[in-house]
Amino acid sequence: MAAAAPAMRAGLAVLAAFLLLLAASGAGAEGAEGALPRFAEAPEYRNGDGAEPGVGELRSALAASFPSLRFEIYPFRADAVTGLISASVRAALEAPLNYARNYLADLLPKCVPRAIYLDSDVLAVDDVRRLWETRLPAAAVVAAPEYCHANFSRYFTDAFWSDPDLGERVFAGRRRAPCYFNTGVMVIDLRRWRSGNYRHRVEQWMELQKEKRIYELGSLPPFLLLFAGEVEAVDHRWNQHGLGGDNILGSCRPLHKGPVSLMHWSGKGKPWDRLDAGRPCPLDHTWKSYDLYIGDGDASQASAPSWASLSSSALPAAVFSW
């Protein structure tokens, strides 16, 4: 979570991707169809409460909550990216943890060929093996749901589009016309990422941003600059994003039409903050059922999600929330 204590941030930086990597290979626990798995209460450090946990404490909390899951923790050092971060439209987007996905190929062992990256504000309600099995053709490094109806130009400043060395020239020669994709859910071929030196290429765009201010959002635009028009498209069911509203108001939003495999509270409004404040949106009650911070007394009062309102094929097979 964005407001978690610094030591927890380090542990969670790569944890989401690696937990799902292991789950996709069969190491994850599966709940009964349609049932809500019961998790043990995590230590009180959600949203920065309590003492800062070390790796050992984080490992113990995860082992208690997911007893059948094999996992590894790969700490992310915030100082690897701190000097490259520019001011964003929302302060939370400036947190170093938002940029941890740039370093997955460096943090994970070389023998790991592929990773599923998930933001910390997502809830999977389907078997992530299906996402893991996404085919990546030879030309693709990243697979993600694309949203070609979105106004792609608004993700960059007028200074970017008016610069003769930037603008449309950046996207010339791509396999397809560039479309927006949300980087909160991605399948990444780590071998191609390493061989293409994409971490360095992301950092180059971040350095240029500090000089010219070519975008307003945080860690998303460099991925658009590198991969828009080259992304292997994934079904939209794997990123029902925007449930946190926009980056200013964070208003309540409903699910998009169609089947749902993953719910994503992208935007300013986070379900744990709205629940803590006593002003939850309707879909936030779904998050509450899986929040590891909720004690046994609270869990009994959590509103069970209406899976019938999602899709008959979207019942929870493996559910993770961070």
Write the SSE topology.
Layout: H1 6-24, H2 55-65, H3 104-107, E1 114-118, E2 122-124, H4 129-132, E3 142-144, E4 146-147, H5 158-162, H6 168-171, E5 180-181, E6 185-189, H7 190-195, H8 198-212, H9 220-227, E7 232-233, E8 262-264, H10 271-276, H11 284-288, H12 296-299
Parallel strand pairs: 3-7
Antiparallel strand pairs: 1-6, 2-8, 3-6, 4-5
EC number: 2.4.1.-
Keywords: Glycosyltransferase, Signal, Transferase
Signal peptide: 1-29
How would you describe the overall organization of this protein?
The chain is built from 12 helices and 8 strands. It has a single domain, classed as Spore Coat Polysaccharide Biosynthesis Protein SpsA, Chain A. It has 322 residues and is an alpha+beta fold. The protein has a 4-stranded mixed sheet with strand order 1-6-3-7. The longest helix has 19 residues, at 6-24. Helices cover 28% and strands 8% of the residues. Pfam families: Glyco_transf_8 (PF01501). It is an enzyme of class 2 (transferase). This is Hexosyltransferase.
